[in-house]
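Researcher: Structure prediction, please.
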Amino acid sequence: MADEEEAELSEKQKKEIAKWFLLNSPPGEIQFVAKDVKAVINDDVLYGEAASEAFPLYNKSHLISIEMPSRIGDVIVTSYGELGETEFIDPRTAQVAVVDHIKQVCTEVRPAQDEELPSAYVEEFRCALDAEILKYVGEAYPKGVCSVYCGNGKDVEGPGFDFELVVVISAARHSPQNFCNGSWRSVWSIEFKDEIQMLELKGKLQVGAHYFEEGNVQLDAKHECKDTTIFQSSEDSAIAISNIIRQHETEYLTSLEASYSNLPDTTFKDLRRKLPVTRTLFPWQNTLQFSLTRDITKELGIGK
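Model: Predicted structure follows.
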């Protein structure tokens, strides 16, 4: 029937749609999106369920950083430092932050327990790498934050066994008053292979940006890379890893800048037809010969 009303969405469907909008919020904009989603749903219980599921996933995927009380440092919300649903460890300060995902704030802090920290042997490598990465991030990313976690083998007590460290770098620039927000996220997995005395690096880089002044333009670029280096002392390994990360990230940023600076001359031109469907150029010098009103009048026989 033409007048048949569309079926009402179920509560489950409404919740899934709300979660989709929250999870796909641009960098730094989930609170703005959440406000609108809550108003549209107009159901506090349903919105609460959607938010409680979406916010933790969003926070971890965007590697948001949250300041801990007393300015002891920032904790990165990432699965690599997740101890519980709301607990995230900061390896640098050996503190565990309790996070309110929806408000995106740290509510309390406690010291990390011994079983939550790596062994002294692994910590030596982690600490040395953390110092080098901290230096690099300070130079490369204004207001960027970083942390080095032990991914596997945190109980290794000495040479002869493999272990893994994970470098997480997060940098964001939020300027909603200027209609733009952006973020840089990179995760580097470093496997320390003792038997072959090699380090294997795997990096995942992601750049997100949103520009919305009189429009809506988004960028979501991803890149993966690999590299290797020899297994050395903790200090030498840290320097080698930091240099590799610096090299790959710099090359990727340079390639992004080059590709977008060439957009007007390459990509945009390729998107346009060389000629209209009529195979003739549009006569810009004499546009008066075209009149939509006249053509419609002629076609419909109006005025006859």
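Model: The mean pLDDT is 89.
Researcher: Thanks, that helps.
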